[in-house]
Amino acid sequence: MSVDPRQTRGLTAIDGAMVLIVVLLIVQIWLLSATLEAFLAGHREAALPGAIISGLLFVACLALYLFVDRVDAEVRRGE
Amino acid sequence: MGAVSEQPPVRGDTAPLSPRRPGAGRWRSEFPYRWDADEIVGRRDLLRLTVFTSGALFAGTAVLALLGRLRDVKRGGLQQIARAGDVAPGSALYFRYPGSDDQAMLLHLPNGQFVAYSQKCTHLSCAVYYEKESNQLACPCHQGYFAVADGAPVQGPPQRALPRVRLENKGGQLIATGMEGEA
After folding, report:
1. What is the DSSP string of chain B?
2. pTM for this one?
3. Interface predicted TM-score (ipTM) of this complex, two decimals
4. Å from A61 to nearest chain B CA?
């Protein structure tokens, strides 16, 4: 049984993107907990940088998802 | 294979399913995936879920930032407290700031400096008082003490400094202009 190299590349790309997204998600969870702790401690000025960084991480996750979606579509078109 | 033909169609592999126990039809109709198809679907769904989760985490952090901005706008306007000459060195004047329910205290330190803090203890919100004998701010509930110079906790259960009221001296008038490090 032969494996289509494009499909293998596609799956590798999806796996890599998933790992990256999960890492970004862990950072976002930590960021939210740290921001909440600082906010409740009265350091409300820490919330804005936290929100900006979290927004950037969300954009990175979205970009990775769109990348995976594109790779997936290309592999399906080639089948 | 008669039992197999009675089962609903399964997505994924086209290979025939092995015979199963009677009664397996219900869960198979509710979850019509073979294990390999389930893995592929799960991967895409997981990706989508993680992106949604990322968006939700961003929204949560953004709400915190927004709340901080709103509270800054709502509270802490200018408020005249007293004339500088009306508060003797080594004494305190109690007032309400930034809201009418928020108790605060103005201290005239022996070195001539004026400082003001919230009266709410950062441990369990008891009222903090100026103790002239020890020149410290004391919380009588749990014997917590704060330094008069910067409001930092020096003894007892409190771990965080008292929120500070920003002061301005305009022509002998002491004016509160906002809060710092408010809990």
Report:
1. -HHHHTSPP-BS--SPPPP--TTTHHHHHHS-B-HHHHHHHHHHHHHHHHHHHHHHHHHHHHHHHHHHHHHHHHS---EEEEEGGGS-TTEEEEEE-SSTT-EEEEEE-TTS-EEEEESB-TTT-PBPEEETTTTEEEETTTTEEEETTT--EEESS--SPPPEEEEEEETTEEEEEEEES--
2. 0.54
3. 0.87
4. 6
